[in-house]
Amino acid sequence: MKLLFIALLVLANTQWITSYQAFQSDEFDSLGWYIQNQHQGWVIQNQFEATTDIITKCSGKNIIGGLKTFGTKSTATKLIKIPPHYKLKFNLQLWKIGEWENDVFSVYVDGVPWEMKWGFTEGGIRLCGGQESKNSDKVFDVEFDILHNSPTVTTVLATTSQGKADVQAWGFRQMKISFIPCPSECGICHNDKVQECKHWNQEALSWFHVDTKLEGWKLENGKPKGYECSGIVVFGGYENIGAKALLSNTFTNMVPHSKVMVKFTFWKIDLWDNEQFYVKIDDKQVQKLAFQKTDGIDLCGAQQTNPGYGEKIVSIEIIQKHSSPSLTIQFTTSLKNDPDEQSWGVRDFFLFAAQCTKFCDECIGTAENECTKCQPTHTLLDGKCVNKNEWYILSKEFFTPEQFNKVDGWTFQDVDPAGPNPPFTKCGDLGLVGGYLAFGKKTTVQKVFNLPKHDFIRIRATVYKIDQWDGEELTMYVDNQEFWSQFLGWNDPGQSDICGNLNGNWKERIMNIDKIIPHSQSELTLDFKSTLQKTADEASWGFREFLLLYSPLKECIEVFSECNYQGKSQKVCDNLESLKDSQIDFDIKSIKIPEGLKITGFKNPGFKGNRVEYETNQECIDKIEFSLIQKQLTGNLKYLNK
After folding, report:
1. Are 470 and 492 in contact (CB under 8 A)?
2. How is 94-120 classified by DSSP, letter by letter?
3. Which helix or strand (DSSP H or E) is residue 317 part of?
4. Structure pTM?
5. d(CA 246, CA 518)
6. Structural domain of residue 577, as residue ranges?
7. Which of 202, 251, 226 is nearest to 350 (CA)?
8. In this predicted model, what pLDDT tens digit does every residue of 117-154 receive, in sequence order?
9. Which of 25, 149, 480, 581 is the most buried (most CB within 10 A)?
10. Number of domains making up the chain
11. 221 and 338 both lie in a single domain
12. Which of 480, 512, 544 is the last residue of a domain?
């Protein structure tokens, strides 16, 4: 029975999930497919000049393309976004029409071709009304899969056929794209092993949207504009970026990490003749790609019929050892001509860091015992970080249902007016501050806290991402400095559809924050903000289980040999297990106790037996009735879960 359960579990984890399908029925009349009220269509180029028909009928079935429609240099292009995955499967029905002369039909997936050769003898009966011939039309049901983990996939259908569409034509229908998802803990992966992917933390995202612009990058010798190539917008491109262009960015405040992963899609445009594209990380070359005249197919750029003026798409992934909190990346080429002859562009840039374990500042890997330097609040022991500080609770809110009945100092700006007031909702059975129909576009949350003397603060919270995020960022600030930030959207490890718009295909992501920073100010201002541009019925966020802890300064009491704080003195900074064995060589007559500190004197060893407690200065003590001293803070509960 146990073996059967394991087998079923593995089968469930490797199940193909359909991400996109279109043109399935015998009758359809649109190139597009609809999702969230947005029309997303295929882009057709170089259609046969004698017709305006994109959809034709062949043997009683509608197909995209077909006779007198798709021929020489015709292409069909589409970009779709896919949740975290590591493998794609394509299913489509291809229609070969007319006699082909050993020409190749290709499905390019991010520039990587799947190919099928159609020769003189590849055919059957006439299906689509063309010329009568011995080897005429044929239908192929195609299925293939590839390793793939980029958040978008660009699919291009093209051929090497030189015949016009009234003699040699092609078409397709029943297109379906499926994927095998990453483990639910991972936003990117290369396989189904959660231990290999759960530590990748997304640090940056650029050129993921339609309105592509500079987005914080620096560009030398180029125009900071987007360019549409076969319906897909890239940064740079034709007439914008060419010879001598340098595109760079420096990313700072990265999480402690041992390596980085850089992913982006590169577009080579027009005539490259063994020229090269370079990638540098921190001034070290990490990637070099050379492109020939024969590379690519005609999608955009200069309107040329000469060979070599084609476009090539390359999905690039670079994994490098790296541990610095900042990283500089540069893109450049060896091109010599102006961007109306040679150009390039990029899109879908992602930067990931292999994050060290919690409370580790430096590491050689992501395993629990691979830390080499811990945060100041923790001690390194056998490669692990062990807490050494005492933590006290300043604020513990939104854990129980009763705590969602009051706001208690929190302020909310730009809450969705259609949502509840105060903005408390539920996700599943649990209460949230914010959430669906409450926190959306421009919503900000703030609270100001007053703290006793301390040197570190620690914030724990559970944060919910809900519904249709598309690469936007949610950030927590402490005193106007970024404390925690996360890009959210297509690259999320989506967990389950537990709240929000239950009619959509979006899953919620639950994130647990537990982070420590140095802090000594008596006041702390906490803010939540996001870059969402959608209303709270489309995309939202919320939080619960908020816990603010502080590590108190190690203050000392001072004991004196005479009343009124006179005579000999000695500071006591730690618990004393025996006054007799301590360095105090006098009877204690007065004690100075810092504000917020309490001392307890015990008569018996082990801090047991009769006791006396002092929370304020003691000017004169007649008789010492204790032999041990224990210090502790007053006012706040000690946090026992380290």
Report:
1. no
2. EEEES---SEEEEEEETTEEEEEEE-T
3. strand 312-321
4. 0.85
5. 38
6. 557-639
7. 202
8. 987 666 677 888 777 666 688 999 999 999 999 999 99
9. 149
10. 4
11. yes
12. 544
Using left for φ > 0, alpha for ψ between -120 and 50, and beta otherwise, residue 264 falls in beta
Residues 277 and 407 in one domain: no
Give the whole-angstrom CA distance, residue 72 versus residue 442: 50
In this structure, the number of other CB atoms found within 10 A of the CB of residue 410 comes to: 18
Same-domain status, 496 and 598: no
Residues 173, 61 contacting (CB under 8 angstroms): yes
Residue 305: predicted pLDDT: 66
Task: Extract the tokens encoding 279.
Answer: 């990638």
The pLDDT value given to residue 640: 61
Q: How long, in residues, is the chain?
A: 642
Q: What DSSP line would sit under 165-177, residue for residue?
A: TTTSEEEEEEEEE
In this structure, are residues 624 and 588 in contact, taking their beta carbons and an 8 Å threshold?
Answer: yes
CA distances from 559 to 12, 512, 576 (A): 68, 45, 13
Are 562 and 540 in the same domain? no
Q: Which two tokens mark 331?
A: 């893109």
Residue 362 in any domain: the answer is no
Of 496, 523, 544, which residue is a domain's last? 544
Confidence at 626, pLDDT banded by 50, 70, 90: low
Instruction: List, for residues 511-536, the tens digit of each pLDDT value.
Output: 999 999 999 999 999 999 999 999 99
Which pair of structure tokens corresponds to residue 26? 């015998």
Structure tokens at 611: 């006791």
Is residue 142 in a domain?
A: yes
CB-CB contact of 226 with 48 (8 Å): no
Taking the C-alpha atoms of 420, 423, 427 and 430 in order, what is their torsion angle to the nearest 10 degrees?
-120
